[in-house]
Design brief:
The chain is an alpha+beta fold. It contains 6 helices and 7 strands, in the order ααβαβαβαββββα. A hairpin with a 5-residue loop joins strand 6 and strand 7. Helix 2 crosses helix 4. Bound molecules: flavin mononucleotide.
Length: 194
């Protein structure tokens, strides 16, 4: 892969919140994404994170209502039936590390690695930190002494997402146009360099 391909991959790795539910992913599809995160760096190479995969429709239906979608879209409660994710990957940290900030840094690195792996396969995903805490119980990770730090909702892409410069009336707020295209404003390089 050359640097242009890499930049294109990163640009294509956007947050997707609507999916083609009629094309479900299987356990192996999600395990392949976790396999990419296996090679991600971690503090002290502890590799303390664990990953819980959900693809079973019954389990999906108990996870979904516990997720909070797109806080900036105040009159949208999340994807409708038919456009919901067909898989979830919960990035879980040991409860023993509950006060160790490294777990969250490791979580972010693992999550972005999974997101890039998903994008490289043309899949969509949404990292989610807003969810009801009891999702840990319904997924059974509490019993294993783990806590979900981030949940990635994954599926075949079911919406159009575009990047744009942040110098519009929307500022940094993502927005959806009349055709349903989701717009994601990003700052310019010179805004980031200090
Ligand atoms: C740590 C983190 C937590 C997030 N939590 C949520 C969430 O709970 N619900 C949601 O709909 N999106 C969530 N997102 C997605 C962000 O809203 C999204 O990354 C942002 O709008 C920028 O879009 P982009 O990912 O396409 O660049 C989260 C993203 C990150 C990195």
């Amino acid at each position: 892969m050359n640097s242009k391909n890499f930049q294109d991959l990163v640009k294509s790795s956007r947050t997707y919140r609507r999916f083609a539910e009629e094309e479900p992913l299987c356990y192996g599809d999600l395990a392949a994404l976790v396999n990419a995160a296996r090679f991600a760096p971690s503090a002290n190479n502890m590799q303390a994170l664990r990953f819980h995969i959900v693809v079973d429709p019954a389990e999906r239906s108990v996870v979904f209502p516990r997720l909070r979608w797109a806080a900036l879209y105040r009159d949208w409660d999340g994807p409708e039936v038919g456009e919901r994710p067909t898989g979830y990957i919960a990035v879980c940290a040991p409860k023993a590390l509950a006060t160790n900030a490294m777990r969250l840094i490791d979580t972010g690195i693992a999550a972005q690695t999974i997101a890039l792996a998903a994008a490289s396969r043309g899949l969509g995903c949404c990292m989610m930190r807003s969810f009801d805490p009891d999702v840990n119980d319904v997924m059974g990770v509490s019993a294993e002494d783990y806590t979900a730090e981030l949940i990635l909702a994954v599926g075949v892409r079911g919406e159009r997402v575009v990047l744009e410069a942040s110098e519009t009336e929307h500022g940094l707020a993502y927005w959806r146009d009349a055709e349903g295209t989701h717009h994601v404003p990003k700052l310019a390089l010179e805004d980031l360099l200090i």
